[in-house]
Every structure is written in C-alpha cells, then in structure tokens.
Amino acid sequence: MRELVEVIAKSLVENPDEVVVTETESGGEVFIELKVAPGDMGKVIGRQGRIAKAIRAVVKAASSKSDKKVVVEII
Length: 75
Fold this sequence. Notes:
The chain is an alpha+beta fold. It has a single domain, classed as GMP Synthetase, Chain A, domain 3, CATH 3.30.300. 39% of the residues lie in helices and 27% in strands. The chain has 3 helices and 3 strands; from the N terminus they run H-E-E-H-H-E. The protein has a 3-stranded mixed beta sheet, covered by helices on one side. Strand 1 (20-26) and strand 2 (29-35) form a beta hairpin.
C-alpha cells in the first residue's frame, strides 16, 4: 500500500522529491502517513478534501483482499 500512495502523491505534487510515505502496522490496522512539502499540501488535499477522499478510496479498494483496515493520514 505504501508504494501505491507514494505513486499517487508524486504524480500530484510539484516537488515529488519531498514526498515521504511511512507505513506502520498495529494489530489488524495499517497506518500510512503521507508527508508532502507545505506548498503541495493543497494539491494533495484538494477542494473540500476531494482528492484526499479519492486517495483513501483507492487504498481501501486495493486493500479489500486483505483483512486489515488501512488508514491514510496526510501530515
């Protein structure tokens, strides 16, 4: 899942070198943290959070085969 979020985020931002994605597993949940440059934050979140919701929906669909809940946090 980390690679999926990283590819999506790098295609959206102007500074792809500053995209950092970390994945942490705790119990039955997987936490994915996405960090981008402050100037690119708006591009990743989108108007009224639409792009952030879309990223979360794609990750949820991709993780549907596993029994783990995936949480994407944008920092």
